[in-house]
Every structure is written in C-alpha cells, then in structure tokens.
Design goal:
Strand content: 15-25%
Largest sheet: 11 strands, mixed
Helix content: 25-40%
Order of helices and strands: HHEEEHEEHEEEHHEHEHEHEHHHE
CATH class: Alpha Beta
Structural class: alpha/beta
Strand order of the largest sheet: 3-4-1-2-6-5-9-10-11-12-13
CATH topology: Rossmann fold
Distance between the termini: 22 Å
Number of strands: 13
CATH superfamily: Alpha/Beta hydrolase fold, catalytic domain
Shape: globular
Number of domains: 1
Radius of gyration: 20 Å
Length: 430
C-alpha cells in the first residue's frame, strides 16, 4: 500500500492528535479520515469518568431510516475470558461493547436511544471533535437522537432476520455507522455494531467507565502506521470472530451480557443464521473482507472505502463483495484493491462516488454539513468532500441494501447492472 511520509510539523502541530493520519492511511490516503481523536494522549486512568456537564451546544440530527419497520436497539457488555486483551496483554480477558439494531414493534413507551452514550460523548467533545475542526462545546453530541427505541420488542412480522456485523474505521466508534445501520434494521436486518476497546477513541462501559485508545507512537512513519493497522486488524478479526460465535446464543434467547442485561422480547428464534454479512468502513472494510475470507459463516461483505490489509489483499474472495469508494481513490490506483480484484472469483462490484471523501462513508456525511460556520470549512471539505449529503447518503443506503437483499435475502435485482437505476453522482464498475 502506498503512503506519503508525514510532513514536517511545527511544535504546535506536533501536539495535535495524530489519529487522523493513521485513519487516512487505512484507506491509502493521508488526508481522509473517519474520526479524529485525542489518541496521541494517555488513556483515561482506571476508575469512574467525570460526570459530563449538560451541553448547550448545537442540536443536529441523523436522516430517518427509509424502511417500513420502526427500529429498536440494545447495548451489550461482552467479556471474552478465552483470550487476553490483544492490545493490553496484561489484561487477562478481552472486553467489548456492542449494540444490536433490529426491526421493532410500534407499541410501547421505550426511550429513544442516543447516538452516543453521555460520558463517551463528553470525551468525544473534548478530544475527538477538535480534530474534525469542531471546537469543544459546539455540538450537543450526547443529545443527538437515533431513530431507535431502547430495548423495544422485536417485530416478529419482519420474518427471519439476516445478520450484518458493522465495523467502523480505525479509531472510530460504533456510533459512526448509525446512518447505514438504522436503515438496514428498518429493512428487516439484525445489525450488530462493535467497539474495539483500546483502539476506538472512547468506549463507555456500564457504570460510566470510559476506556480510551492507547497512545500512538511518537514517530508515525508509513511503516509504523502499516504495522499498527495490521495489529489492529488482527485484534478486530478476533473480536468479530468472538461475536459471530455468540449469534446462536442470541437466537436461543440467551443474553451474553456480562452484567445481565436482557435481550429484547421477541429476539429468540428471529435470526437467520444462514445469512450473515459484514459491513465496514475504512479499516473496518478491510476486516470485513478478511473475515469473509477466513470464516465460512460469513456469506458476503461490503467495504466502504477501506484499503485492504492481510492475506485477502493477495488471495481475493470467492464470495460476494461490494466496494464503495471515491472517483479519486479506486481500484486502478489503490494497489491492494487491484490485486484483490484480480484474484477474486466471486460476484463483485465497485461503486464510485463523485465529489466524496473518505469520511463521506460515515455519519460525518450527515453531521458536518449541519454545522455550517461552526466547523472548519477546510477540514469539512477534506473529510466529506462536496457531494450533496442527502444524495450521497441515499445512494449509499440504496447500494448497501440492494447488495444484502441480493446476497443474504436472495432477492433478484438489476440494480447493479442497469445504469438507468444508478443514483446520481455514482457509477458501477464491474
């Protein structure tokens, strides 16, 4: 994978968090990023995080899902005692937070779930938002609502639910895929989103404990960054394999939550364990491809603008694969996609988005345009480009839904082969 050497920085610039450079290289570009972070600083010491203060910042929203079902969500705390933590080896077990998103019943008075939990949102405001060109206190991050109701019962009239696991970009939290995740849930999928502890900017656990990402090395050469991303991918693949192993337990109605959080009513027997896909952005896209290669339980994978690490870049896939990328970053100029495409034998399509940037394939596409002059315009353009956000989000949802409908639900479509059906600003490359 090609990468530019880091430019010389002033002392002030050197003190700036460096996670964005790492994220950009995950997609073979130095300037594109999913999530900024204070990960160059020390992790939060053990113990309760500070109680977040009430925010008076701007209120922003996410686009409503387009499927016919209302949606529910539940957060689960997982403890994998079969292995030490791969990023903090002194810890004898691996600890994760995940969320389930699913079609839900319309009745009940369940609270609307927030986009990000309160202490995680406070940490994001202090340490992550500034690297996106958004000053602390500008946005009420904890006040961003989703369209899901916490612990609402599963809608059994949705039938058997195909399963999709979502992985964010390196350093990103599971919240950053909510726009696509909610839409899939509203269209009859069970989606599991995963935070990768000590790599994600911040992960809030029950009781208010926040674990931050480990500090990055002082010298981030291209080789150091590539080594970090390989290590992060290895940890993520193990995390996702562990989560895959819990699906049968979920379908039997047994909660894997370490603190006894119950599963939503109606989940038992609702999962289609024969229809499992992966969706990932940036490094998460590489993880999706690698796990589809490694694990026979995974039937299809979507990569949102993520360069590939691991053996899959050389061996390709014999399973369905969808790549969403940018007109300026595609399989002719991204070496890992070039070798992957040539070696793959399964169904595959590439969709190129005009006027997009790396962060366009995350919730930043929905959030940053709402901030106007309250965000650094140059950073916003660097992160999400100049594409119309409504059209970009609608197109991403349309392609991802059509792909999983075709390969998990086995619903025939001409969407990828009929140019008249392509959303504006995109083109499909077989």
């Amino acid at each position: 994978m090609t990468a530019e050497a880091p430019a010389q920085r002033s002392p002030t610039q050197r003190s700036r968090p460096t996670r964005r450079a790492l994220l950009g290289l995950a997609a073979a570009t130095v300037t594109g990023a999913v999530a900024g972070s204070g990960c160059g600083r020390a992790a939060t010491p053990p113990g309760p995080a500070r109680r977040p203060r009430a925010s008076s910042g701007l209120t922003v929203s996410l686009p409503a899902p387009t499927g016919s079902h209302p949606i529910g969500t539940v957060d689960l705390h997982l403890v994998d005692r079969s292995r030490p933590d791969p990023l903090v080896p002194s810890k004898p077990y691996r600890e994760l937070m995940i969320s389930l998103w699913y079609p839900a019943v319309r009745r009940g008075r369940h609270a609307v779930a927030p986009w990000m939990s309160p202490r995680a949102a406070a940490d994001w405001d202090r340490n992550s938002a500034p690297t996106l060109g958004v000053a602390p206190g500008t946005v009420d991050w904890a006040g961003i609502p989703t369209h899901a109701r916490s612990a609402a019962p599963v809608a059994r009239d949705a039938g058997q639910l195909p399963i999709v696991l979502f992985a964010p970009g390196d350093g990103g939290t599971r919240s950053l895929g909510t726009t696509l995740v909610e839409d899939l849930a509203s269209r009859g999928h069970l989606v599991l989103t995963v935070d990768h502890t000590y790599e994600a900017d911040q992960v809030e656990f029950p009781g208010g404990r926040v674990e931050r990402a480990l500090p990055l090395p002082d010298e981030l050469t291209p080789q150091v960054i590539a080594d970090l991303l390989v290590a992060h991918q290895r940890a993520r693949v193990a995390d996702m394999t562990y989560v895959l192993g819990l699906l049968g337990r979920l379908d039997r109605g047994h909660s894997p939550d370490a603190d006894g959080t119950p599963l939503p009513d109606g989940l038992r027997g609702a999962l289609d364990l024969s229809a499992i896909g992966l969706l990932g952005q940036s490094l998460g896209g590489s993880v999706a491809a690698q796990l589809a290669h490694d694990d026979e339980r995974v039937g299809a994978a979507v990569d949102l603008d993520g360069g590939l690490f691991g053996t899959v870049a050389r061996t390709g896939l014999a399973k369905p694969f969808l790549l969403l990328d940018r007109e300026e970053h595609h399989r002719e100029n991204e070496p890992t996609w070039t070798t992957f495409w040539a070696a793959s034998t399964g169904w595959r399509r590439e969709v190129r988005f005009a006027d997009a940037q790396h962060g366009s394939f995350s919730d930043l596409q929905a959030i940053l345009p709402q901030l106007g002059g309250h965000a650094d315009r140059a950073v916003t353009a660097e992160l999400i480009g100049t594409a119309d956000p409504r059209r970009s989000i609608a197109a991403q949802r349309a392609y991802v839904t059509a792909f999983f409908d075709l390969h998990l639900k086995h619903r025939r479509t001409r969407f990828f082969d009929d140019a008249d059906a392509y959303p504006e600003g995109t083109r499909v490359v077989p």
